[in-house]
UniProtKB/TrEMBL annotation, chain A:
<keyword id="KW-0238">DNA-binding</keyword>
<dbReference type="InterPro" id="IPR014284">
    <property type="entry name" value="RNA_pol_sigma-70_dom"/>
</dbReference>
<feature type="domain" description="RNA polymerase sigma-70 region 2">
    <location>
        <begin position="30"/>
        <end position="99"/>
    </location>
</feature>
<dbReference type="InterPro" id="IPR013324">
    <property type="entry name" value="RNA_pol_sigma_r3/r4-like"/>
</dbReference>
<dbReference type="InterPro" id="IPR039425">
    <property type="entry name" value="RNA_pol_sigma-70-like"/>
</dbReference>
<comment type="similarity">
    <text>Belongs to the sigma-70 factor family. ECF subfamily.</text>
</comment>
<dbReference type="InterPro" id="IPR007627">
    <property type="entry name" value="RNA_pol_sigma70_r2"/>
</dbReference>
<dbReference type="Pfam" id="PF04542">
    <property type="entry name" value="Sigma70_r2"/>
</dbReference>
<dbReference type="InterPro" id="IPR036388">
    <property type="entry name" value="WH-like_DNA-bd_sf"/>
</dbReference>
Automatic annotation (TrEMBL), chain B:
<dbReference type="InterPro" id="IPR011990">
    <property type="entry name" value="TPR-like_helical_dom_sf"/>
</dbReference>
<protein>
    <submittedName>
        <fullName>Tetratricopeptide repeat protein</fullName>
    </submittedName>
</protein>
<dbReference type="Pfam" id="PF13432">
    <property type="entry name" value="TPR_16"/>
</dbReference>
Length: 202, 254
């Protein structure tokens, strides 16, 4: 296995903001360094390895989004932050599991922190519905909305998709969003997806 | 009601870009006009869907990187990899060679055969008939006609059991011919007589005993040869070292 570059929190933030190859390297570093601890945490608390992988990947996703949005600025280390997100996510998911069945009853949850984001649990059907919806968008609306959703600035979006400037990108984004809203209104299945999201309280 | 704000203006509000005065008016309408509130909610839901889509895409990317890291870790620590297969083959080759090398070279009989060299014919001139018979034996021995040599040497020893030259050569000829069991008695007799052949006779007797799988006895005799320091002490020492080699502890070496 090739030797990975080591990152401090500042370098990680910068690499993730850069995107592309640099971001991939940084994510690989975080997986190598932190996944083992998270697996321990979740398996000890009655989770499976598959649960651990899913929660960890979800937490990394939240971290990446928060870095892009500027919501995570390195107040704590990335590792502490990831651990806290995972712990909170697992607590919430576990609560959902125990609501659904009493199988896991008796788990100790008092020490868990509730101030962390929740994993959005989409089942396979919901995931495929979501992709189908965005695939219906015309021109490059899918990309525009994806980058916008990833918190890229209008200037960055203009640059990535070869628009002449940020204002053009902004107009494009609004048009695409209108298109999406229209599709949502026409599709009863998407309405069901939105209802499910409301229950999940994103 | 709803027509008061365009899509772009609602977008502005949701993005947090609306000016304070306008925002106040917007929020007042939001709290009083349920139709407008629903319109804004739907707009907000498109944002939520975009967020969800972006998240799903990032998570997919994270998952594929995680899978790559797992594959790398598996390759480094376990599972099948080209390196591992190559290492296994190399190990197999080493073990295989060791097997063939040691099972062949450190086999008792092989050690004995390898140490064996026919005793040279030291006789040149003969006179009487006994010596003629002995000479015919030696001639056959030189030609590796062991059957004939054994016949002649046996003839001599039958006529004169103290004819130690013939006994010695009879033993060595039996050994050379692979008739190990027959080689023992003439060689023992030569040793008992304390003849000048003693050291050589002990040497050939030890080789004979090894062929007969009597290793402990052979080793005892070899040690004697080494202690006595006579002609065969050097090859005896070397053979003992081989017999005591660690390779011989391997289960497939007899």
């Amino acid at each position: 296995m090739f030797k990975r570059k080591k990152y401090n929190t500042e370098a990680l933030i910068s690499a993730i903001k850069s995107g592309g190859r640099q971001e991939e390297e940084a994510i690989g570093f975080l997986i190598e360094k932190d996944y083992g601890k998270i697996e321990n945490l979740i398996v000890k608390r009655n989770g499976s390895v598959a649960d651990a992988e899913d929660i960890f990947q979800e937490a990394l996703t939240v971290l990446i989004l928060n870095i892009r949005k500027g919501a995570f600025k390195g107040e704590s280390t990335v590792h502490t932050y990831l651990y806290a997100i995972c712990k909170g996510m697992w607590y919430k998911r576990f609560k959902k599991y125990t609501r659904e069945s009493d199988h896991h009853a008796g788990m100790m949850v008092h020490d868990l922190d509730e101030e962390t984001p929740e994993a959005v649990m989409l089942d396979e059907e919901q995931k495929s519905l979501l992709h189908q919806l965005f695939d219906q968008l015309r021109e490059n609306c899918k990309e525009v909305l994806l980058y916008w959703g990833m918190s890229y600035s209008m200037t960055e979006i203009a640059d990535m998709l070869s628009f002449s400037n940020a204002q053009v990108a902004m107009n494009k984004k609004n048009k695409c969003l209108k298109q999406l809203k229209k599709l949502m209104g026409e599709d009863s299945k998407v309405q069901g997806l939105i209802m499910a999201l409301d229950v999940n309280e994103i | 009601m709803a027509q008061e704000y365009s899509f772009e203006e609602i977008e502005k509000y949701l993005s947090g870009d609306m000016e304070a005065g306008e925002k106040q008016h917007f929020e007042k309408l939001l709290s009083t006009d349920t139709g407008f509130a629903r319109q804004v909610k739907e707009h907000r839901q498109t944002h939520e869907l975009v967020d969800l889509y972006a998240r799903a895409n990032i998570k997919n990317r994270v998952k594929s990187i995680h899978d790559k890291v797992k594959a790398e870790q598996k390759a480094a620590t376990g599972g099948f990899s080209v390196m591992k297969i190559a290492a296994s083959l190399a190990l197999l080759a080493v073990v295989g060679s060791l097997y063939f090398y040691t099972s062949y070279n450190y086999n008792t009989q092989h050690l004995a055969s390898n140490a064996f060299e026919p005793y040279p014919n030291r006789f040149r001139t003969m006179g009487d008939s006994q010596e003629d018979t002995f000479a015919r034996g030696l001639k056959a021995y030189d030609l590796q006609d062991y059957k004939e040599a054994i016949t002649q040497f046996s003839q001599v020893t039958a006529d004169n059991e103290k004819y130690l030259d013939a006994r010695f050569y009879l033993g060595v000829t039996y050994l050379s011919a692979g008739a190990y069991a027959e080689a023992v008695s003439p060689l023992r007799l030569v040793i008992e007589e304390n003849s000048l052949y003693e050291s050589s006779a002990k040497w050939y007797l030890s080789l004979t005993l090894l062929q007969l799988d009597k290793e402990e006895e052979a080793k005892k005799i070899l040690q004697e040869i080494v202690q006595e320091g006579d002609v065969k002490s050097q090859p005896a020492r070397e053979l003992l070292e081989d017999l005591n080699s660690g390779f011989r502890k391997l289960p497939f070496v007899r």
